[in-house]
Amino acid sequence: MYSSSGEPPTGDRTDMLAVRNGPVEIAPQLDGPLAVYGNLEIISGTGRVVSRAEAVRLCRCGHSNTKPFCDGSHSRVSFRSV
Length: 82
Ligand code: FES
Description:
- This protein is mostly beta strands.
- 5% of the residues lie in helices and 29% in strands.
- The chain has a three-stranded antiparallel β-sheet with strand order 1-2-3, with no helix packed on it.
- Strand 1 (25-28) and strand 2 (34-43) form a beta hairpin.
- Bound molecules: FE2/S2 (inorganic) cluster.
- FE2/S2 (inorganic) cluster is lined by residues 32-33, 59-61, 63-64, 70-74.
């Protein structure tokens, strides 16, 4: 559930990663999200851990209802990345 604060909810995966550093790969998807791979901690603007994961898809169209994550809304709004 999202509130009007803009703060994303804490996700299901907030358990500590086995490794917290290392390389990060950011792969922009054509007309879609940023696919990000690595040992990732997604932190809200207030410093709260939203998710820890090894791979995420981050919204860059601005229309996701699950920001910062992509929910596929980029297709509905015909987002173009170029
Ligand atoms: S990039 Fe997929 S919902 Fe925004």
